[in-house]
Specification:
Helix content: 10-25%
Order of helices and strands: EEHEEEEEEHHEEH
Strand order of the largest sheet: 2-1-3-4-10-9-7-8
Structural class: alpha+beta
Largest sheet: 8 strands, antiparallel
Strand content: 25-35%
Number of strands: 10
Distance between the termini: 61 Å
Number of helices: 4
Mean pLDDT: 79
Radius of gyration: 26 Å
Length: about 200
């Protein structure tokens, strides 16, 4: 489930992502589209630009927030080997506060299904960053950053409290004498002359 929310936490768009279907796209396409259309106005007519929104993907007892920020860090620029417009990526561990090195997004990662990336965020456990001193979970404990054309896309998993819906009983208990008594009292109250 995908929700696009204004920064004031009001919902604008509700949608869903199914990996490898027509409403799925690659991770690289998602990052590029999000950054390139940051200044566009919300299609739901709230009057704010898309950069003033964030997206939340919810499944089970977790959520993945996707927040667009201006890239004030300019991590290694957006040029690699003279090629412009390269998506740069790194992650930050929320537990031990370590940061991975900033690297260009590989072609395989660029082509990876965004829906599958989200599924791994919700279901994959104990994934570690190869060659990193950080021993914490890659999807649960780390904030993932992608930098492109002056913007940073921050993707962060967090647990949520799931509430249980308690429906009313299917059988309604009703005693007509109580309802008639209330109606009679109301009639008497209305019929009484008002006192000055």
């Amino acid at each position: 489930l995908h929700l696009s929310l204004r920064r004031q936490r009001q919902m604008c768009i509700r949608d869903r992502v199914d990996f490898y279907w027509e409403n799925d796209f690659s991770l690289g396409q998602f990052i590029e589209h999000t950054c390139l259309h940051a200044g566009d106005l919300c299609p739901e007519g709230c009057g704010l630009s898309l950069k003033d929104h964030y997206r939340t993907y919810v499944h089970g007892s977790g959520k993945v927030d996707v927040v667009l920020e201006e890239d004030t860090h300019e991590k290694a620029g957006n040029s690699v080997n003279g090629k412009d417009d390269i998506i740069m990526t790194w992650s930050f561990c929320k537990v031990c506060h370590s940061t991975t090195v900033v690297l260009p997004l590989t072609e395989n990662a660029w082509n990876y299904s965004f829906g599958k990336y989200l599924e791994l965020s919700f279901w994959c456990r104990n994934m570690k960053v190869k060659g990193s001193a950080c021993d914490h979970d890659f999807y649960r404990d780390q904030i993932h950053y992608f930098s492109f054309r002056g913007y940073m896309v921050r993707i962060e998993y967090s647990e949520i409290d799931t509430l249980r819906l308690v429906p009313p009983k299917s059988k309604v208990f009703w005693k007509p004498q109580y309802d008639i008594g209330i109606k009679i009292l109301s009639l008497i109250h209305i019929s009484e002359p008002t006192r000055p």
